[in-house]
Amino acid sequence: MKQRYYRFGILTCLLLFLLTGNIVAQTNEENQQTYTKLMKQKNYGDAIRLMDKVLKDKESKTAENYYKRAAAYAAIDTDHQHYTFSEMLTDLDSIAKRYPDFVSYELDSATTLLGHRLPVVTLGNRSARHHIMVQATMHAREYMATQLTMALLEHYAQMCYQDICEYKGQRISNLLQQVCFVIIPMVNPDGVEIAQNGSNGQLTDEVKQWVRQTEDNGTSHTKIKANANGVDINRNFGNGFNNPFTSSRKTHRSFNFYSGLLPYSEPESQLMLRVSQRYDYDLFLNYHTSGNIIYYGCQNAKKYVNKLAHDYAKLIHCHTNYPLYGPDSAPAGGTWADDVEIIYQCPSVTVELGSTNPVPISEFPTIFEKHKNVWADLAIEVLDNP
Fold it and tell me: Which of 116 and 32 is assigned the larger pLDDT?
């Protein structure tokens, strides 16, 4: 009799196990469908709460599983070549609504020639003791830098939200309470419009005519670095402005290397200056393309500033294996990196991404993998060097 009950008990447990497994699988599938529906409806609050509920399951609450799930529902599309200004604004809105405790942004009052207002993004605690300023796509054809910056923004926001993700023994959420990133993800949207669409873009008639003339002279719109005024923004800053020893310097409106009539003549460079004055930054991090190299320091900066810049550059090198080029590699030429090292006596590092311009989208996965932990490492370094 006992043996019969024993067998019956085993069969009952097995049946319950199979039924429970089927119910769990069905529940997971329903959760997936519900999550997808909520995301399409832009009901981000309920979507995030559902994700949180799923992740609290004992088997799911690991950083590895979270990364996989978060990547599947990322806002940033990194599968197409032309990442546009309007797409970036849509993505920013999505990320800020999904993770309001960690990400916010504002549109600056300044307006570019083509009517764009530039977003300034905050990742982390605005009142933190330490701040790092990040800028990307100062040059038009370098919009891959925006794609990377936006993907990193979402990556870190996701890790903060779940509050289970660590790097070198420190929770990302805790790091970003102490070190805040202030980000301008696309400094030159006018130029990006030209670089991506040429004279078919949303341009004024005068700018269209200039683009056509330049292409008639043998320069493709895909190679543009300047803004819609024909000014190379990264030659429009004070330190070394119009330096006659700067290679390829132009004296007139051009697709590249024209400094403009005066330092800070452009709305884009004026915005950069205003944002740089908001905090006492620990580091200025600049994303450009291409070359897979790292520049740091400035010839006429103080030695201790160049030393700090070298330390941060070496840290990024450890992740990317990009070669380093120091302050002796080029004279000051009105670049942003040169300017902030003189004005604020603060280190600046410029990272050049990719193999060519514009960087093929096929290179994005490799670039992201190399850079995904860089911001966390920089934050730790900043805290170690108060």
Answer: 116
Lowest mean pLDDT across 25-34, 229-238, 342-351, 360-369 = 25-34
Phi, then psi, of 29 in degrees rounded to 5: -65, -40
Amino acid 77: pLDDT: 84
**Quick count: other Cβ atoms within 10 Å of Cβ 12?**
10
Cα of 362 vs its chain's centroid, Å:
18
Tell me the C-alpha distance between 260 and 384, whole Å. Answer: 40
Cis peptide before 358 (omega within 30 of 0): yes
Residue 49 has a pLDDT of 61
Q: Strands 283-289, 348-353: parallel, antiparallel or unpaired by DSSP? A: parallel
| Nearest Cα residue to 317 out of 372, 374, 359, 365 | 374
Residues 6+ apart with CB under 8 A from 182: 120, 121, 122, 131, 132, 133, 134, 275, 278, 279, 281
**Cα 199–93–175 angle (5° rounding)?**
120
Structure confidence by residue, pLDDT tens digits, 149-177:
999 999 999 989 877 688 899 999 999 99
**Dihedral of the CA atoms 43, 49, 51, 52 (nearest 10)?**
160
> Could you give the C-alpha distances from 301 to 223, 382, 386, in angstroms and in order?
31, 20, 20
What is d(CA 61, CA 300) in angstroms, rounded to the nearest whole number? 51
d(CA 33, CA 20): 20
SS3 239: coil
The residue among 203, 181, 180 whose CA lies nearest residue 85 is 203
Confidence category of residue 280, pLDDT binned at 50, 70, 90: very high
Please give the distance of CA 319 from its chain centroid, rounded to a whole number.
16
Is 287:184 a contact under the CB 8 Å cutoff?
Answer: no
Q: What is the pLDDT of residues 311-344, one digit of tens each?
A: 999 999 999 999 999 998 878 888 999 999 999 9
Q: Angle CA(87)–CA(279)–CA(319) in degrees, nearest 5? A: 60
**Dihedral, CA atoms, 97, 99, 104, 105, nearest 10 degrees?**
-50
353: β partners: 289
Strand partners, 53: none
